[in-house]
Amino acid sequence: MAQSSSPETLSSPSIDPAEVEKFSRMAAEWWDPKSKFAPLHKFNPARLSWIRERLSAHFGREGREPLEGLELLDIGCGGGLVSEPMARLGAKVTGVDAAEPNIKTALVHAREAGLKIDYRHGTAEQLLEAEGPGRFDVVLNLEVVEHVADPAQFLTDCAALVKPGGVMIVGTINRTSRAFVTAIFGVEYVLGWLPRGTHRFAKLVKPEEVEGALKAAGLTPETPVGVSYNPLKDSFFISSDAGVNYLMAATK
Amino acid sequence: MTGKTLFDGDVVISGGGLAGLTLALALHRAGVKVAVIDALPLDAHADTAFDGRASALAYTSWRMLQEIGIAKHLKGQSQRIEDILVVDGRPLDGLKPGGPGVDSLHFDRREIHPREEGEPLGYMVENRHTRIAAAKCASEAGLPVFAPRRAHAMQTQAGHGELALEGGDRLKARLIVACDGKMSRLREQAGIRSLGRRYGQSAIVLTVEHELPHEGVAYEYFMPGGPFAILPLTGNRSSLVWTEKDAPARAIAALDPQGFQEALEARFGDFLGRVKPVSPVHIYPLGLMLAERFTAERLALAGDAARTIHPIAGQGFNLGIRDAAALSEVVVDALRAGLDPGSQAVLTRYERWRKTDSAALALGTDMFNLLFSNDNTALRHVRGLGLSLANAVPQARRFFMRTAGGETGDLPRLLKGEALRL
């Protein structure tokens, strides 16, 4: 999720047999809905459902594996909470993360789940350099843009990786006073769902800023949807309120 | 490893009873890879000697049976319930025993579904007919059924669960569902404890024929030994659920035909003309059971394996159908989003969805039974007053009807009559 220190080069790490147990334990924690990753598990079904419906509609496909054969990039893939579902829906998934332990955790878990995913340690910029532009039908860019040093450049690199006819989905937190109160103060300080300092207000990105960068890169952004929280049901749902968490699709 | 893997899919259901088959058909129809295993052949459940009961299917349950294809096989075997009359069943004064008392609460479906052909409050169907219809549906739909086969243990591995069958074969799936009844073996093996108690009451169940038509009215009399329910079946027939304390219930069930007839008339009354039994007399001890958890690793409990409640409100089978509706929706949503249908996050959603409803109904029926199953004169006045009061308030009547119809809370799509598709 976090791109703390940039790796030198793009690599496909392998796991030392001695490390398997450690990463298997980390994987178990990533996938435990009662662990520190609980908020992601609560958040995940709502955004995954929306992404599936949006991609199904875009490519005009239905059924069990609507993404069959599509090249999909999950940038900032973390432990693979989005990469694995996308692989189950049939996509050929490349997962990239700047934090090596995340990639190793994701590798171990995918192996345990019997899924084939191409996990790489690196950044979007390095991937673009290595693979060239227009490589992916789908680029998922979820909860990353608020952590990178240069959001505009990062969005431009990601946009370049999308094939003509493809689609990019950006998910992040809006820079509004309400987002500050709920997503930062509420989530990090009151509920303690995320460690304090996970998100910095000044680093948050408004939908119009994402739109601007994507348009400049030749994509056609759509109106964003909100991912809102229902405290009574303790779950997230897709809404028209993009004031806190939002998702935006952009086609090429 | 010995034996073969007979099935490898999304969901394996242990138990081909009403809850198990309803769930299986809902999933199968949506495009989920599902199989059912049962120790008995499916048609073995169709005998009156196996299950002589009839069930009230709430109108939301009926919508689901229509959606998954069971209802079309019940034409001519389902009776619309248009009205429910709840009465204190032993008039305080009066010469002739039996029949409805003075204080009553009348529910009329036209108050919530006003059109001439509007939805009734529910449908009465004999369980064996529902079982036959579900089995027919299963074979028409090509649902994989392993019966008669006995499951002896469940194991979990990374990414899936496995049901080991006697003889060494196995069934694999990402989610295993226990629909194996109130004595659920899978529940016990998973170490899930259950809370429960016996009511000290038993239900005498039989079908009677009466001279006059029932006009689709269900009656529930409150008697000292427990509720006495007359539930309309097709034709001039009704299903009786006659609750008594254990010892008198056993004594009544053991009476010779002449003695039984007298005991029956003394409670039933003569408002529907002459009444006579037309089925074997069954007796079922009543108890309350609630599983402490509805899920374990890669396992979900549904139907009677999750809980059994007092039949006072006729909700037992409906709870099983609501489990099936919620669980199939949770599984389909998960598969549509590429999530693992047996993962903890998905199971947690099912448990939260179903547990409140179950606990509330268990408690509600329990309290109701305590209040009504006694002969304390003061209490009889209080409940008589309660019935008359509730009867005087239309909002209260509509609320009770919608609650009994299963229309409260967060309704699964199948109970709204909407389809589920992968």
Mind explaining what this structure looks like?
Chain A has 252 residues and is of the alpha/beta class. Chain A has eight helices and nine strands. The radius of gyration of chain A is 17 Å and the shape is globular. In chain B, strands 5, 6, 12, 13, 14, 15, 16, 17 and 20 form a nine-stranded mixed sheet that branches. Chain B is 33% helix and 29% strand. In chain B, helix 1 packs parallel to helix 7 and helix 7 (316-336) packs antiparallel against helix 8. The model of chain B is unreliable at 91-95 (pLDDT under 50). The chains are: A alpha/beta (252), B alpha+beta (422). Chains A and B meet through helix 2 and helix 3 of A and helix 7 and helix 8 of B.
Output the keywords.
heterodimer; A: 252 residues; alpha/beta; 9-stranded mixed beta sheet; 9 strands; B: 422 residues; alpha+beta; 8-stranded mixed beta sheet; 33% helix
Task: Summarize the structure in short.
Chain A is of the alpha/beta class.
Question: How are the elements arranged and paired?
Answer:
The complex is a heterodimer of chains A (252) and B (422).
Chain A: H1 20-30, H2 38-59, E1 71-75, H3 83-88, E2 92-97, H4 100-113, E3 118-121, H5 124-131, E4 136-142, H6 151-161, E5 162-173, H7 177-190, H8 207-216, E6 220-221, E7 225-230, E8 235-239, E9 245-251
Chain B: E1 5-14, H1 18-30, E2 34-37, E3 54-58, H2 59-67, E4 79-81, E5 83-88, E6 104-108, E7 122-126, H3 127-141, E8 145-146, E9 151-157, E10 160-165, E11 170-178, H4 185-189, E12 194-210, E13 217-223, E14 226-233, E15 237-245, H5 246-253, H6 257-268, E16 275-277, E17 282-291, E18 295-296, E19 299-301, E20 307-308, H7 316-336, H8 344-372, H9 377-392, H10 394-404
Parallel strand pairs in B: 1-2, 1-11, 2-8, 5-13, 11-19
Antiparallel strand pairs in B: 3-7, 4-7, 5-6, 9-10, 10-11, 12-15, 12-16, 12-17, 13-14, 14-15, 17-20, 18-19
